[in-house]
Amino acid sequence: MNETTMDFSRLDRSSRRRISAVPMAFRRAPAAAINWEDRLICLKGPRGCGKTTTLFQRIREAFPDPSKVLYASLDDLWFATHDVFDLVEDHFTHGGTHVFFDEVHHLPDWQTCVKNLYDSFPSLHFVYTGSSMLRLDRMQGDLSRRQIVYHMPGLSFREYLLFEHGVDMPAVPFERLLEEHASIAEGVCGRIRVLPAFEAYLRFGYYPFFKEVKRGFPQRLAQIAAQVLEGDYPAVEDVSAATIRKARKMLMILADRVPQKVNFEKLCRELETDRNQGLKMLDALSRGGLLGLLSDRARSLKGLSRPDKIYLGDTNLMYALSSAPDTGTIRETFFLNQVRQVRNVNYPARGDFLVDGQWLFEVGGRGKTFDQIADDSKGFLAVDDTEIGSRHRIPLWMFGLLY
Question: What is the total count of domains within the chain?
């Protein structure tokens, strides 16, 4: 047994312990869309959303012979003194067929490395996960013709109901939700007290690890935000320590002010930075899942233009990072977070959100009226504290059934 194999055996034992311990009862809905037969698969998403668990579940169910599969997390210190290419070659020469890499963005020049591995071992299948910060559309190594990319967000409210309460139901297409929400709501409310479950979800249900650390959940989530800024950000972008500190300050300033029509010049002055760097930090925080940026159709975030409104990425982050989360902001953040996973959401001239350029939404409490969108035939209210709605008045929680 050569030195590489002996060294790898220590890494391998740790991986197999983790894989054998992964729970199999609950599977993330986005994982069902993955075609595992493709030779190169990228699974990207924010920290804590369940990417690693998805890999472990796939390995457990598909590989009764563990020698056929290699799993490694590329942020492991083991790779400080070992070469990834040598590891894969050793796996291949010993009869391996599949390679699963976690946290690939922590590998220097990872794009080129993945491309070379894919081309050098044409019989191997590769699956890798990476930060949602990754810019897959402008990489050094051309993977666009080779890979299939899947995005995994946090739990939808629908997934949370299954994970926490055992209430199983299919995802509801957006148009069907608008047309049949009353009958759908009756079916759900006949199985569970939905409003208390929704309140719990807003506080801690977006990240699957909540079951492990329910009491320390806000602290764990704050730590994940710090990991995104201090680990993922410099691994994906060429940024200085000073920029990381400014991005962290930006996040904490915005956490207590969202949502807002951005006074971007004032924000940049507070951060002692210029407009261009400020926009780059906003974009990075958004791609990392820490912020939700909302712009009208005319302003493209691809061009790093100033967003019209800024939200935190999800409601769990609001409770973890905001000193006093505002109820109205929580409602809007939930709507934006859930709906934009399946549809385009923009900032309208009136109302709160414009979906796919045609459906206008106002978000509010039970007493919300149609005053602002009364003359719009495609105007809807998304109302909180409501179990079952009627006509264009839809319970807010139901927008968590879309995926």
Answer: 2
pLDDT tens digits for range 141-198: 578 788 999 999 999 999 999 999 999 999 999 999 999 999 999 999 999 999 999 9
**Do 184 and 145 belong to one domain?**
no
- At 16-46, the pLDDT tens digits run 999 999 999 999 999 999 999 999 999 999 9
Q: The CATH number of the domain where 25 resides is what?
A: 3.40.50.300
Residue 362 and residue 267 share a domain? yes
CA-CA distance, 364 to 352, in Å (whole number)? 10
Are residues 235 and 134 part of one domain? no
Residue from 318, 199, 336, 335 nearest 256 by CA: 318
130-149 exposure pattern, b = at least 16 Cβ within 10 A, e = fewer: bbbbbeeeeeebebeebbee
Give the dihedral sign, CA 300/304/309/312. positive
- Domain enclosing residue 105, as ranges: 3-151
**E strands within 3-156?**
40-45, 69-73, 98-102, 125-131, 148-151
Query: Is residue 64 domain-shared with residue 204, that is, in the same domain?
Result: no
